[in-house]
Design a protein that fits this description.
About 35% of the residues lie in helices and about 20% in strands. By secondary structure, the protein is an alpha+beta fold. Among the domains are: about 235-245 and about 255-325, no CATH class; about 385-445, no CATH class. Strands 1, 2, 3, 4, 5, 6, 7, 8, 9 and 10 form a ten-stranded mixed β-sheet that branches.
Length: about 450
């Protein structure tokens, strides 16, 4: 508990003394407890002063979670020698009932179908050096009743069918001036909020998103925030190479060449080739255009994989708005995007993102942000306690704090406390019960 209090002293300018004390108690309970991380269960694992009503008051308090995550990261996790990226992703939490705020039907990529639940969008900082993601902010996506069950990323007005071809009198539209849908507006607002909190301390150039956001509307939204987008295109995307014929001096200069065929790309665009087992991977980098969708050229990297036995091929198309980013770096950065999935995994498995039973707006927001905040706290504690134990994980961390909780409750029942060295040895042993990656040799059970 003492290390938690010392880590959280940096929050005193941003939280009241009461809220800070409640947060410390809840974090200690979350680290020690078993079972679901609900308000009722948290109150069972807190000490005196952590009643159920106290936990309710905390969950109904408006808390600046974005500021807390940034201050914690800047003080305890920031490495000035590392390059940092920004990534975002959506996660779906299944919920039953009818009264939870924002409850609707969302498509779950994990289950492969539309389910009834809540949707949350999170932004995280990725350290290229440590190859780890640190959550900064998470917000609930509340769908309007007028929107369809599956909202598309690009909002286009509905048009009635008429004569084929371009309507008479229509003019060219500026594709850099786009109308964002509600989801992209919310993502842009979150992005601007997070960038504003950095206040020049952290320099970010790239924003990573999965293939669902690989469209022009998202690209223009990210560019408005001063960042470059790294994402993925559909494998059947219509891309065109630069023109090879010289300008003849008449008319508008051509900007489109031949269509890109990933399986027969010219070898002059090949960057590297490597073979692992029967799979040969060829990396190509080309500046392409995508007509009718993107107004500007894209830095496209094609990964073409070939099976030596069956000669079957498969390819992936990554892209960035930064035309000067090299292929290997682009591939490496996009691969790091998956680190946010580990944030969601830990938040759901250990820190209550799947368990909370709150139904009102403020408690739901606090429950989701607390679960992602715990990802950062556990990352710091694992650095502190896991330096001597390689592979020290979340289960080891929870076993340690659970052992300390049991020891603290046992000492309250003793008429006289043992010596400090004995207490430390017992605590060390109890912390190994249920742990995976380390054991204590100081005390053996009789």
């Amino acid at each position: 508990m003492s290390e938690i209090v010392s880590l959280f002293t940096i929050f005193s300018p941003h939280l009241s003394a009461t809220t800070l004390r409640q947060l410390s108690e809840i974090v200690f309970a979350a680290l020690a407890m078993t079972g679901s991380l609900t308000m009722r269960n948290i109150s069972r694992w807190t000490q005196k002063g952590g009643s159920y009503r106290t936990i309710q008051r905390f969950y109904n308090t408006i808390i600046p979670w974005g500021t807390l995550c940034w201050v914690f990261f800047r003080t305890h996790l920031f490495d000035p020698e590392s390059v940092y990226l920004l990534t975002g992703d959506e996660s779906i939490v299944a919920k039953s009932g009818d009264e939870t705020y924002g409850l609707s039907r969302f498509f779950s990529s994990t289950l492969g179908k539309t389910i009834r639940g809540l949707a949350f969008f999170a932004l995280s900082i990725i350290s290229v050096k440590k190859r780890r993601s640190y959550p900064m902010l998470i917000q609930q996506i509340v769908r309007s009743e007028t929107l369809p069950a599956k909202e598309v990323a690009v909002s286009t007005p509905s048009e009635t069918k008429g004569k084929p071809g371009r309507p008479k009198g229509s003019k060219n539209r500026n594709k850099t001036q786009v109308v964002l849908n509600d989801t992209l507006k919310q993502v842009q607002s979150m992005l601007k909020t997070v960038l504003a909190t950095f206040d020049g301390v952290l320099s970010i150039r790239y924003f990573l998103l999965d293939g669902y956001f690989g469209n022009n509307h998202t690209l223009q939204m990210v560019r408005e925030c001063g960042l470059h987008l790294i994402s993925k295109l559909r494998k059947d995307a219509a891309l065109y190479l630069p023109p090879t014929t010289p300008y003849q001096g008449r008319g508008r200069p051509a900007i489109y060449g031949k269509r890109l065929k990933p399986k027969t790309i010219d070898s002059k665009y090949r960057v590297s080739t490597h073979t692992k087992g029967n799979i040969t991977t060829e990396v190509y980098q080309i500046t392409c255009r995508k007509p009718k969708r993107f107004p500007d050229p894209l830095n496209v990297v094609c990964l073409l994989k070939t099976d030596a036995k069956t000669q079957e091929t498969a390819h992936v198309l990554l892209f960035s708005s930064d035309l000067h980013l090299d292929a290997e770096t682009l591939i490496d950065y996009y691969a790091l995007r998956f680190q946010i999935e580990f944030n969601f995994r830990d938040a759901k498995q250990f820190w209550g993102l799947d368990d909370f039973m709150n139904v009102k707006e403020i408690p739901v927001n606090n429950a989701a942000n607390l679960s992602m905040f715990m990802v950062n706290v556990s990352a710091k504690l694992r650095e502190m306690f896991g330096s001597e134990h390689p592979g020290f994980g979340v289960l080891d961390l929870k076993a340690r704090y659970r052992g300390h909780k049991y020891l603290r409750e046992t000492l309250k029942m003793l008429p006289q406390k043992p010596e400090t060295i004995v207490i430390n040895n017992i605590a060390e042993h109890l912390g190994t019960i249920g742990a995976i990656h380390y054991t204590s040799n100081q005390i053996r059970p009789g």
